[in-house]
Write a structure and sequence with these properties.
The protein is α/β, with parallel strands linked by helices. The chain contains 7 helices and 10 strands. The protein has a domain of 142 residues: DHBP synthase. A hairpin with a 6-residue loop joins strand 1 and strand 2. The radius of gyration is 17 Å and the shape is globular.
Length: 222
């Protein structure tokens, strides 16, 4: 799903109490206990784990049958939380964050020394995005740090667009499942690696190469 779906879009007609996502508190407690949760994003359903828990990361790799040498990207609650993962943030990275976040663009930034090695790619970068889905944002915000953003499927299998698909693929090894409806997404997040003065497309997804190039050339979309 791109942006807020109608069921999650806030109304500006009158003040209202914040909506409480069923199971959110249980999901946050599960993350703090090094357990895994399934949650919706603006693209596909993801598997959430505390990236600073070795136990949780090991459980995540075991669950998915994922190559431990393949780094795991993250979802942050906001731009400040996301960019705090980086040892340095170039003007190119700030421009893309300003234009495309929240949304399906993962930026690979130079990682701080404190970032777990399972999250760091061969070039020394950590991938992170600010999700446009309110449940994903709420999870990271309530945990107080980013959460893993790997798709809710076994390695090599199609990503889950519904909670039922995620449950069928991953079974009872997940502590909490958070419902977010059916995703209309057809592509994963785009992944772009950012250097001081250069950039490289790692995976073209929901945000096109043309959009990235236009944004970096002019600061605005065509």
């Amino acid at each position: 799903m791109s942006g807020l779906s109608p069921r999650h879009r806030p109304s500006h007609d009158s003040p209202a109490a914040p909506k409480v996502t069923p199971g959110l508190e249980d999901a946050v407690e599960a993350l703090r206990a090094a357990a895994l949760v399934i949650y919706p994003t603006e693209t596909f359903y993801g598997v959430g784990a505390d990236p600073y828990s070795e136990k949780a990361l090991n459980a995540l790799f075991d669950l998915k049958g994922r190559d431990p040498e393949k780094p795991v990207a993250l979802i942050a609650a906001d731009v400040e939380m996301a960019l705090a993962l980086a040892s340095e943030v170039s003007s190119l990275a700030r421009r893309l964050a300003h234009i495309f976040w929240p949304g399906p663009l993962t930026l690979v930034l130079p990682a701080r020394p404190s970032i777990p090695r399972e999250l760091i790619g061969p070039g020394g970068g950590v991938g992170v995005r600010v999700s446009a889905h309110p449940i994903a944002v709420a999870l990271a915000r309530n945990l107080g740090r980013p959460i893993t953003a790997t798709s809710a499927n076994l390695a090599g299998a199609p990503p889950a667009t519904t909670l039922e698909e995620a449950r069928s693929a991953l079974g009872g090894k997940i502590k909490v499942y958070l419902e977010g409806g059916t995703s209309a997404a057809t592509m994963p997040s785009t992944v772009v690696e950012i250097g001081k003065e250069n950039w490289r497309m790692i995976r073209e997804g929901a945000v096109s190469l043309r959009q990235i190039a236009a944004a970096l050339a002019s600061g605005t979309l065509e």
